[in-house]
Amino acid sequence: MPTKFRPCIDLHNGQVKQIVGGTLHDSDGLKLQTNYVSPHSSAYFAELYKRHSLEGAHVIMLGPGNEAAATEALKAWPSGMQIGGGITAGNAQLWLDRGASKVIVTSWLFPDARFSEDRLALLASTVGRDRLVVDLSCRRQTTSGSESCWVVAMNRWQTLTDMKVEYESLKRLSKYCSEFLVHAADVEGLCSGIDRDLVAALGKWSPPVPVTYAGGAASLDDLDLVHRLSAGNVDLTIGSALDIFGGSGVSFDDCVAWNKAGVAASK
Length: 267
Hints:
The protein is α/β, with parallel strands linked by helices and 267 residues long. It is 30% helix and 23% strand.
């Protein structure tokens, strides 16, 4: 299958927004850089995605004050979208009951920024592997010499954990989940181009579950680029560049057409 366009609904303070990911801080709202604040509700976008059968869209709650908007989106398309942001073993089933197709988890898996396999196993047993997405949002780090690696970042991408995004970690985690979501936090919201090295690596590692990459997409050509770099093993989320989010780089209708062409070609 070719790379697919996977849409999103990012919620901040109850509103649909597109932000520069690396500027999201717990304590200092003045540092936040916002690309777009939508006049439309979360339900508006959920209904738009439903109308075009864009399954696998994700709703991300960026901090507190977003539960009502997230619930509104899930009600607009029951079982059509995934939900992430503050997910734990204690509330995951609640969000599934509210209409999420899957729950997306990151920070709760890393108490004190250290990965807990016990927590992941508990969550998988609570909701089922098929209803669980692990978010491996990450930042690029320089190792010895000039080589780079990607380290999972939690707490709105501000805290680095003890886990690298690499073949062994993807293989280990895939026993518990049915999908990965990978935000490249360093380029999220910048519309300056995807992290090509990360996309190529994800495609090469080709984990046994689907992978969606998000971060930096600037044009429709990025869908083709991700397809080529990953051999079709990685899907792409486009946010700030989309015309429906105030962007000028990508037409939403063109993304829908891309998906339809891919489905037709695979038959």
